[in-house]
Amino acid sequence: MLNGFVAPVYQSGSGPINDVSLVAGIWNDFNPAHQNAPGYNELDAFAGVNFSVDKDWIAGIQYVAFISPPGNFKTEHNLEFSMRYDDNLRWMSPISLNPYAKLFFTFSGNSTVVLGKVPSFDVELGAVPTWDFHPYEVPLVLTMPTWLTVGPADFWGGTSNLGVFSTGFNARVPLEQIPPQYGQWSFNAGVQYYNLINDQLRNAQEVIGVVSPGSTGHRNVFVFAAGLGLHF
């Protein structure tokens, strides 16, 4: 469950910096099937700033803390730097690609990937192809989030520089029949595929109890999700 807050602090129609916003939020993970932490599994808190550069580039700096309410790991302190290009239907209209890059730096606490070294970092390179059907008078937005993580081998605690490849498909249906004074609601559903390229990510599954001792961790993982979204 994700709850977030965005506060615009600066907007300008001219100059290299066009928009600055403060962001903060909390993500909660409730997983009754988790062996080590049934119930309330994890809490992630984040805060940072996003700003647009020359209108089409969106950059961000964010602090993220991974917290284990049951105390299964030390709080993991991280910084994330992101840059995304909003192509705004320029290249493949009516589809936009929205390529991006993220630098994720973990500087204190346990390893975010269990067996890795701290401090260390990885880089996520990806895109979120988006097809908005509103021009066809259909309340539907399709996205295909796709990315690859790379970085120094010690981030994962092994010898490979590759981490995870992921791609998926998501459909968002705005619930436009709800009056706007009650917020902007939407229904979301999709599936995301993860290929755990790095063998240490499979080994970590045994450490945290996802698989039985002596078992080989899962290489290919599918996550199905559905939910309601609301923002004001």
Helix and strand topology:
Layout: E1 2-11, E2 17-31, E3 39-53, E4 57-67, E5 76-85, E6 95-96, E7 99-108, E8 120-127, E9 130-132, E10 141-143, E11 146-150, E12 162-174, E13 184-196, H1 199-207, E14 220-231
Antiparallel strand pairs: 1-2, 2-3, 3-4, 4-5, 5-7, 6-9, 7-8, 8-11, 9-10, 10-12, 11-12, 12-13, 13-14
Q: Please, could you describe this protein's structure?
A:
The protein is mostly beta strands. The protein is built from one helix and 14 strands. The chain has one helix spanning 199-207, and strands at residues 2-11, 17-31, 39-53, 57-67, 76-85, 95-96, 99-108, 120-127, 130-132, 141-143, 146-150, 162-174, 184-196, 220-231. Strands 1, 2, 3, 4, 5, 6, 7, 8, 9, 10, 11, 12, 13 and 14 form a 14-stranded antiparallel sheet that branches. The chain starts with a strand and ends with a strand.
Helix content range = under 10%
Supply Rg. 19 Å
Q: Shape, please?
A: globular
Gap from first CA to last CA: 17 Å
Element string (H = helix, E = strand):
EEEEEEEEEEEEEHE
How many β strands by DSSP? Answer: 14
Mean pLDDT: 90
Tell me the number of helical segments per DSSP (H or I, 4 or more residues long). 1
